[in-house]
Amino acid sequence: MTLRLGDIAPDFQQHSSEGDISFHAWLGNSWGVLFSHPADFTPVCTTELGLTAKLKDDFARRNAKVIALSVDPVAAHLEWIQDINDTQHTTVNFPILADADRKVSELYDLIHPNASSTHTVRSVFVIDPAKKIRLIITYPASTGRNFNELLRVIDSLQLTDQHSVATPGNWQQGDEVVIVPSLQDEALIRQKFPHGYRALKPYLRLTPQPG
Fold it and tell me: What does pTM read for this prediction?
């Protein structure tokens, strides 16, 4: 099954380090970040899970829940969590799915035979409260994920869902944003963007970040 942006994230029931999880019910009205790992006790993923735990408050401010996945069983997860806590000087505070039967891995197309016929690739999905997939990134095994980028994308998605804007390259909170080309009514533009805008080109109009 190939998932694309805008698809509904498949629902599932699966065991985890924090008990059985029904995914859509667990998400509730929150945003979600689902990220997969090829196996427990892998070095790059150990650092990623530690970093994720340290970012708990950052995700919470964005109404986002985080859930990891590995194909190993719960018992292995619990041992791995101890290693993560010890080596990363934190406490894992989110569930790790135990996808030993590959049920979730198959739903999310995480088994790539050219990478491994048994272990998942290192993908990350950002899912909105309507359960739509809004971001998919797959990383090589040798490169740790950039969680600051994931937070930046969530910020952008939440901002652009609320206003008629898009965010330019390398945008950070507080930077100027782009008025979407489809908005052409000048009266409505003045209403939505009382601070005005800079038109570099008719299709490229920059305005202070609203909100």
Answer: 0.93
